[in-house]
Design a protein that fits this description.
Chain A contains 6 helices and 5 strands; from the N terminus they run αβαβαβαβαβα. With 142 residues, chain A is an alpha/beta fold. Chain A starts with a helix and ends with a helix. By secondary structure, chain B is mainly α. In chain B, a hairpin with a 2-residue loop joins strand 1 and strand 2. The radius of gyration of chain B is 19 Å and the shape is elongated. Classes of the chains: A alpha/beta (142), B mainly alpha (165).
């Protein structure tokens, strides 16, 4: 690599560093620097199972994943076909039910996104995200 | 060679225009704008981007959250360098490396069977499928490679010589 090219790369890396430091300082009391922020809406499989029939399971994965296997009784509700699936979901939902949303694994984002939309856009309460998702469910369910 | 060069030039309103040069410059501005746009989307919500990076299961949170504050600004700075054609080769290397990293991470999560939000364009890309993400990122990488391969041939400083009528 030519020296001038290395200098250019270092210059750009350095230029980006300045505003990044500024923003990080601005967020220093907001960001969780050492571990992910705890999601208060997370629920473990054992806890969700203990709620019995009051749970309305929501599968936030793509339709083809849902077709391959899902939590018994779960409804499909993902962001791909949100409007159509939401109508079906609302026919099954009632205020006394707890909604537990899951996606493929612990680190997937779809369940959090769907849970957030149900809380913020639809205005529902008692919305939870299943810790570990479908991957954990399969491990813990014979 | 001279004949080939003359084919790329045309007189527009009395001005001799090198169309290859114009096309390359437009493509560079386009590529730069994509990175500036992607960077701005992430700068607006660095904690969401930190979450997106964490979902890839490649980096520990403590490193990912720091990168989430740095990478968007790197995209913006490199994107501006592409747009204004300054520090151009360095910007191409950085943006190309970023694209390779994003594509590698996407393929990695697909191999792990994890359905994650890409985070490439913040919330704007959260509804894109894996294939579309790959097509989009691959196209941008292809564009950057084209700009890299042709960069030495573009001489923006030397005047374009007028050919005899």
């Amino acid at each position: 690599m030519r020296p001038s090219l290395v200098r250019q790369i270092l210059l750009l890396l350095g230029l980006a560093f300045l505003p990044a430091i500024g923003q990080a300082l601005y967020f220093r009391n907001v960001a969780s620097w050492h571990q992910p922020p705890v999601d208060s809406g997370l629920v473990s499989i054992a806890q969700a199972k203990s709620w019995g029939d009051t749970v309305l399971w929501v599968d936030a994965r793509p339709e083809q994943d849902f077709a391959r296997g899902h939590v018994p009784g779960a409804m499909l509700l993902n962001e791909d076909e949100w409007d159509a699936q939401l109508r079906t979901f609302l026919t099954a939902w009632s205020p006394e039910r707890r909604v537990v949303v899951y996606c493929s694994a612990k680190s997937c984002n779809a369940s959090h996104a769907v849970a957030e939309r149900l809380r913020n856009e639809v205005g529902l309460t008692n919305i939870y995200v299943l810790e570990g998702g479908w991957e954990e469910w399969q491990k813990r369910t014979p | 060679m001279a004949e080939a060069h003359s084919m790329t030039r045309a007189r527009v309103g009395g001005v001799l225009v090198n169309w290859h040069l114009v096309v390359r410059r437009v493509l560079a501005v386009l590529a730069g704008a994509v990175f500036v746009y992607a960077g701005i989307l992430k700068v607006r919500d660095p904690l969401q981007f930190a979450n997106d990076l964490s979902n890839y299961r490649i980096l520990p949170w403590s490193l990912g959250v720091r990168l989430a504050f740095y990478l968007p600004w790197l995209e913006i700075v490199a994107g501006l360098a592409l747009i204004f054609h300054r520090i151009f080769a360095g910007a191409l290397v950085i943006t190309g490396t970023l694209m390779l990293a994003f594509i590698g991470a996407l393929v990695w999560t697909k191999m792990l069977g994890i359905n994650v939000a890409c985070g490439c364009f913040g919330a704007a890309s959260s509804n894109l499928t894996f294939t579309w993400h790959l097509v989009l990122n691959g196209s941008i990488l292809g564009l950057l490679i084209f700009l890299w391969v042709t960069r030495e041939r573009v001489n923006f400083v030397a005047p374009v010589e007028d050919s005899p009528a």
